[in-house]
Amino acid sequence: MASAPADPSPRFKRTSSDKEQGARFPLGRAFACARCGIAHAWRTQRNMRIHSLFALVAVVAGFLLRIDAQAWCAVVVCIALVFAAECFNTALEAAVDLVTDDYHELARVAKDCAAGAVYLCAAGAVVVGVIVYLPPLVALIWS
């Protein structure tokens, strides 16, 4: 029986004995892991890059249309929500793929529901975008 390859990054593994001894996962390492997850989603998920493009367009439009602080809050929350949903979707797909390579109806349901959650967040962001950007855009066109 072949042995499993050595873990290339043992510092990321927290064992049960670490937990029993109260060993703490360094905060800096936690942030590094989060950055790695976001970078992985951006590198591997076409939709994450599409969301990034729309986020950039939303930010540029916000500056050009001089939206107020409340509108900025709505835009920032929508951008963060869509990015977070896409990261959750990526994580769920990876976990499902880890469990099985075979087609399974429940795996499809899990992946479809996760994708649907991203879709709902993105659709909500579009509605917020219309509410935030349409009035100043109409005012700019009519002035």
* Binned strand content: under 5%
Mean model confidence by pLDDT? 90
Give the ordered list of helices and strands.
HHHHH
With helices defined by DSSP (H or I, 4 residues minimum), what is the helix count?
A: 5
Q: Write down how many β-strands occur, each being a DSSP E stretch of 2 or more residues.
A: 0
Proportion of residues in helical segments: over 70%
Looking at the overall shape, the CATH architecture of the domain at 45-142 is Orthogonal Bundle
Shape: extended
In angstroms, what is the radius of gyration? 21 Å
- Indicate the structural class: mainly alpha
Largest sheet: none
CATH class category label of the domain at 45-142: Mainly Alpha
> How many angstroms separate the termini?
76 Å
Uncertain parts? 1-8
CATH topology of the domain at 45-142: Helix Hairpins
Question: What's a quick, concise take on this entry?
Answer:
The chain has 143 residues and is mostly helical. Helix content is 78%, strand content 0%. Helix 3 runs parallel beside helix 5 (105-142).
Structure characterization notes:
By secondary structure, this protein is mainly alpha-helical. The protein has a domain at 45-142: Helix Hairpins (Orthogonal Bundle). Helices cover 78% and strands 0% of the residues. The protein is built from five helices and no strands. The protein has helices at residues 16-20, 27-44, 46-65, 69-99, 105-142. Helix 2 crosses helix 3 and helix 3 runs parallel beside helix 5. The chain starts with 15 loop residues before the first helix and ends with a helix. Residues 1-8 have low confidence and may be disordered.
